[in-house]
Design goal:
The complex is a heterodimer of chains A (about 1000) and B (about 90). Helices cover about 20% and strands about 30% of the residues of chain A. Chain A is an alpha+beta fold. In chain A, strands 8, 9, 12, 13, 14, 15 and 28 form a seven-stranded mixed sheet that branches. In chain A, strands 41-42-43-40-34-44 form a six-stranded mixed sheet, sandwiched between helices. The longest helix of chain A is centred in the middle third of the chain and has 20 residues, at about 465-485. Chain A is elongated. Chain B is mainly beta and about 90 residues long. Chain B is globular. The chains are: A alpha+beta (about 1000), B mainly beta (about 90). The interface between A and B is medium-sized, with 27 and 27 residues. The structure holds zinc ion. Zinc ion binds next to loops of chain B.
Chain lengths: ~1000, ~90
């Protein structure tokens, strides 16, 4: 099992540990420390995928985050993940990787016919082609696009992995551990600042790992290791590898994606797979480095074509050769380092330099080592379909637009360098408007908008000396402002090679009559001609060109294509790049998993579950629960094979005939105290509150300032300055905020305090004609007669030895009471009630029966108080005082609220007395009328009236009161039902309200 | 995510707060006559400035106090926060 492209010694991989994996079913091996990419290249494999639009063969182009092509479907640790970047994913035992976007195989791809039909796929292809006829869209166009396009396949299995979120605060966050990042972190740490240093790759050091430099007589790599070791030992420093800071948000909030355990073979049960860090940093150092830019030439997407720095990284970090017959194609000196590295490993490169013959430290060294250098030369077109075999190269004339000589040379890889582009994504996200730096032909950060400082290559300084100096200075100054400590650090001596000037040359011209594709954006298959078409068709704004051609979109975000695209536009338009501008950089910088975004908020942890103290009893007694906000409430208690309908009917009927108990703990409860409490309630509620005696409850209605009903409930005067307010379950939090708003902002002169006591009290309603008999057994020493405890009365008494509150209030319309005890006593109360109630035929009832009872009584609730109704709409105008002012009163005078035909609440019964009316049905005059059929109202609540044994509904209907006695249709297209109904009063049972007072 | 300085609790994450609208709106006095126009202005009419805006936030997951925040609606920069009883220049 030899690896034909693995060097014998070089690299930072662990050669003592072999790792086996498969690629497209083929068994291979690599070493610990390899990425999927380095292991495949070591095995001589370059063809890994097919391109997005044309299905052209594609190989590796980069060695890290900049990779546009090599996205694989990867299965490991029991899950399958699409679009994994092969240049970043570390090899783990048993990993299995497959190519995406090809069918039936990467070697023979049917979709590659697109390449030969390329006149169909120019810029704007999707916009132009799939426009008409409309009927073709679903059947032909969409399935075609879906099959031809798209990247990997998302798993449909449940993700069993654990993901976490972490919140962190620091003085200085350093994003990137290259020379400038290390220097910044070190200086800040020495000043005592709390520092987080984040590195995207598994290894710290950035370019120090691959550049031939020395710092204080140590190699770059050894110096990085020394600094990292010292940083790790400091308690005020957190050092994180495999961690990508991908987003810069408001107020110096940065978000980081940590790959915690994807590289581990075994991990403990609670180790998360990935972790999302929300970091609030006082200052941020952006030491994100730079990404090499390609030069555009014909068939520049052929497998075997690499960025030159990537080729060097494969040799120096992974001990892997990207080829044995390399062509180095460059417009600057940095690629000479790659050539020298090849030479060191006994591979003979040819350098094609677009610049005219000249000399520099690196050129002289290459010359002295006998490397074949051809000045004024470049690659015109690469030959070879699935792998580079040769290249047509040309000697450029002085105008650099025509050729003096063209020849073909054999090669098995082309390493291309078109100079460097600072990674300004984070700076741009922070709000920094970038500026164009002529000297490096790229954008760098301009004036800061937040607390961010870019250093090193990210700021356009490409020498080690400058990067270190910037790093130390900024790290020290920024942290000293926070810690007020300044430790002197001497800037180390640096030994590096001096680069000559680069050539402003980005795109190879083509000889006459030759027209190979020249790609600008590999991931989105955008070529030079696509950009030309877009401009020819009138697109001018770079944002429009981007959308029309898809340049710089998707996961790649134009990392290697942005500037070449801009250069092209600027050349064609005869503008300078800064006038063309740049597109917006958006987070995330690199793709992150959905699992990480979601974190632990899945399943049971999606939101908190609120359970009443009696929850366990309900569970044991076959309650079927319903969600009421975060609360779980029994909807009904199932007996035998009962359906919801049967059970709720039984429960409701039992309340009407005997007695039932209902868990009402979830109602909002607010304690109101203070000498001005009565005055406050008088302003909050529509009805009068100044004369409520101690020991009495009152039903109250609250409005918003616009006159719409906000909530209803009862409030009881417990003592002189102490009231107990109840709200609906749904509005509890809103009502509390509402009360606080008026007390804190509008009427701070009122001496009143409010606090939520919802969770302090457990509540149970006892309802039904036999409830008083049952109550007298629960309180044998208490006089519970109608005289002693009348409707809306209140008493405090001991409930079998525990303190309790008794309210005579009713939601069901029956004679009813509500008992509150402290939450800890809730279960005790409930079990006692079940025990004592037996002889009266007591049964528990759930929310469904509760709804039935209130609907047939015509009591309004959430569905009627839906944010659109005023008191008179729902027959509650009797509660609106004409004498005093209150919140929302002035709005009730609005014209629209007082027209005769305004919506009003009514009751509906089906003519056949059998058909249930679906909630949400529209009320219309003629069920067969032409659409849009004029809507007269809607059905808000429906039930089966247990009193009358037929369906009954509440509806909000235009001119409702005048419609009583008339017939209409309730239509529900959703349920495909149309039911003839008669309008009746909304009070279907006991309209005089005798029972509650009995 | 904004970082808001509650005058009672200090710097806290935006998640702890809920937004409460324009802080410069004054409710007409209770029990006093108010013209329909003034009332409608109070209930419905709000400016939506680009730039500095004084607004109300409530520290719902903290001290539950309503507070004033002066914020730039375009950049989200927060210039000043104050108790509702205090003035923001
Ligand atoms: Zn607070």
């Amino acid at each position: 099992m030899s690896q034909p492209f693995r060097l014998n010694k070089e690299g930072l991989i662990n050669r003592n540990k072999k790792i086996s994996f498969t690629f497209n079913g083929k068994k291979l091996f690599g070493y610990e420390g390899d990425t999927i990419a380095s292991a495949l290249i070591a095995n001589g494999i370059h063809l890994v995928g097919r391109s997005f639009k044309y299905h052209r063969p594609r190989g590796f182009f980069g060695a890290g985050v900049e990779e546009p092509n090599a996205k694989l479907q990867v299965e490991f640790n029991g899950h399958s993940e699409p679009n994994v970047n092969a240049t970043e994913m570390e090899l783990v035992e048993g990993l299995s990787a497959t190519s995406q976007n090809c069918w039936p195989s990467v070697n023979f791809d049917v979709g590659a016919i697109n390449n030969f039909l390329k006149m169909f796929f120019p810029a704007g292809f999707y916009y132009k082609t799939f426009m008409w006829p409309k009927s073709f869209w679903y059947k032909i166009y969409e399935p075609f696009i879906r099959k031809a396009a798209g990247l990997g396949v998302a798993s449909i299995e449940k993700d069993k992995e654990r993901y976490e979120h972490k919140f962190e605060y620091c003085d200085l966050l350093v994003t990137g551990s290259g020379p400038s990042g290390l220097a910044s972190a070190y200086a800040a740490a020495k000043n005592g600042a709390k520092v987080i240093l984040a590195e995207d790759k598994p290894r710290f050091g950035g370019t120090l790992l691959t550049d031939d430099v020395s710092i204080d007589n140590l190699s770059g790599k050894d110096w990085a290791e020394k600094i990292i070791t010292e940083l790790k030992s400091m308690p005020n420093v957190t050092v994180k590898n495999r961690s990508q800071v991908f987003g810069y948000y408001d107020h110096n909030m940065l978000v980081m994606f940590e790959r915690v355990s994807d590289h581990l073979e075994k991990k403990s049960k609670f180790t998360p797979r990935q972790r999302l860090w929300y970091i609030r940093a006082k200052e941020t150092i952006l030491s994100t480095g730079s990404i090499e830019r390609p030069i555009v030439f014909g068939n520049n997407d052929t497998p075997g074509i690499f960025l030159s720095a990537a080729a060097k990284e494969y040799m120096k970090v992974y001990g892997v050769l990207v080829g044995k017959k390399p062509l180095i194609f460059t417009n600057n000196d940095s690629a000479y380092e790659t050539a020298l590295e090849f030479k060191k490993n006994n591979v003979e490169p040819i350098i094609l330099d677009t610049r005219e013959e000249h000399s520099s430290e690196l050129i002289d060294e290459a010359k002295s080592k006998g490397i074949d250098i051809r000045f004024s030369h470049g690659v015109i077109v690469a030959n070879g379909y699935k792998k580079v075999k040769s290249a047509k190269i040309g000697k450029l004339n002085k105008d650099k637009n025509s050729f003096e000589k063209i020849e073909t040379v054999d090669c098995d890889c082309i390493c291309v360098s078109g100079f460097w582009t600072p990674s300004v994504h984070l700076a741009s996200q922070s709000g920094n408007k970038l500026k164009y730096e002529e000297k490096i032909d790229a954008f760098i950060p301009d004036k800061k908008k937040q607390h961010e400082t870019s250093v090193g290559a990210a700021n356009g300084s490409f020498t080690l000396e400058e990067s270190l100096k910037h790093g130390f200075e900024n790290g020290s100054n920024l942290s000293a402002k926070i810690t007020e400590t300044k430790t002197e650090i001497s800037i180390p001596n640096v030994n590096e090679k001096k680069y000559g000037a680069h050539d402003k040359f980005w795109c190879m011209p083509l000889p006459k009559n030759e027209n190979p594709k020249r790609f600008v954006d590999f991931q989105n298959d955008v070529s030079v001609s696509d950009i030309e078409i877009a401009l020819r068709e009138g697109y001018r704004s770079i944002e429009h060109v981007k959308r029309y051609t898809t340049l710089g979109m998707a996961t790649d975000q134009g990392r290697t294509s942005n500037l070449n695209g801009l250069q092209l536009v600027s050349n064609i338009e005869n503008k300078i790049v800064p006038e063309v501008g740049h597109t917006t950089f958006r987070p995330p910088f690199t793709p992150i998993t959905i699992g990480t975004i979601v974190g632990r908020e899945v399943g049971m942890e999606y939101m908190p579950t609120r359970k009443t103290p009696m929850h366990e009893w309900h569970e044991k007694n076959n309650a079927v629960f319903v969600d009421a906000g975060a609360w779980k409430r029994p909807r009904y208690y199932k007996e035998g094979n009962e359906t919801l309908f049967e059970a709720s009917k039984r429960e409701a009927k039992n309340v009407r005939e005997n007695v039932g108990i209902c868990d009402v703990t979830t109602l909002g409860k607010i304690d109101i105290k203070g000498p001005d409490a009565a005055e406050f309630l008088n302003r909050v509620y529509t009805n009068a509150w100044m004369k409520l005696p101690i020991g009495k409850a009152r039903y109250g209605l609250m409005l918003r300032e616009d006159g719409i009903v906000m909530d209803d409930g009862t409030t009881t005067r417990i003592s002189e300055n102490h009231y107990h307010m109840t709200t609906t379950t749904a509005q509890a939090a809103n009502v509390l905020s509402h009360l606080e708003y008026y007390l804190q902002i509008v009427w701070p002169e009122l001496n009143v305090n409010v606090v939520s006591t919802t969770e302090q009290w457990a509540g149970a309603a006892i309802a039904g004609p036999k409830s008083r008999d049952m109550l007298s057994k629960l309180y044998p020493d208490l006089d519970v007669s109608n005289e002693a405890l009348p409707f809306m009365g209140y008493k405090e008494a001991e409930f079998f030895g525990v303190p309790s509150r008794i309210f005579r209030i009713s939601f069901s319309g029956e004679l009813a009471y509500e008992i509150n005890v402290k939450s800890d006593h809730g279960m005790f109360m409930w079990e006692k009630m079940m025990e004592v109630g037996k002889e009266f035929g007591n049964q528990p009832y759930g929310t469904e029966a509760l709804s039935t009872l209130r609907i047939e009584m015509g009591h309004v609730a959430g569905p009627e108080l839906d944010g659109r109704t005023i008191p008179s709409d729902v027959s509650l105008n009797g509660l609106v005082s004409k004498k005093k002012d209150f919140i929302g009163k002035n709005s009730l005078g609005r014209e629209a609220f007082n027209v005769e035909s305004r919506q009003k609440i009514v009751g509906l019964i089906p003519i056949d007395r059998k058909s249930s009316i679906p909630e949400g049905s529209h009320i219309v005059k003629d069920q067969n009328a032409k659409l849009p059929n004029p809507k007269l109202g809607h059905v808000s609540s429906s039930c089966w009236s247990v009193e009358n044994n037929n369906p009954f509904s509440l509806a909000i209907m235009k001119d409702g009161k005048n419609m009583i006695g008339k017939k209409f249709f309730a239509v529900s297209p959703l349920k495909n039902k149309s039911i003839e109904v008669e309008v009746i009063s909304s009070h279907y049972v006991d309209p005089e309200g005798k029972r509650v007072r009995s | 995510m904004l970082y808001i300085k509650c005058p009672y609790c200090g710097l806290r994450a935006q998640k702890e707060f809920s937004y409460g609208g324009d802080a410069t709106v004054k409710r007409p006095n209770i029990n006093e006559e108010v013209s329909s126009k003034d009332w409608d202005n109070f209930v419905y009419m709000r400016k939506s400035p680009r730039g500095k805006h004084i607004e109300l936030w409530q520290h719902i997951a903290g001290c539950r106090q309503w507070i004033k925040v002066q914020r730039d609606t375009a950049t989200h920069e927060i210039f000043q926060t104050a108790k509702v009883t205090e003035e923001i220049r």
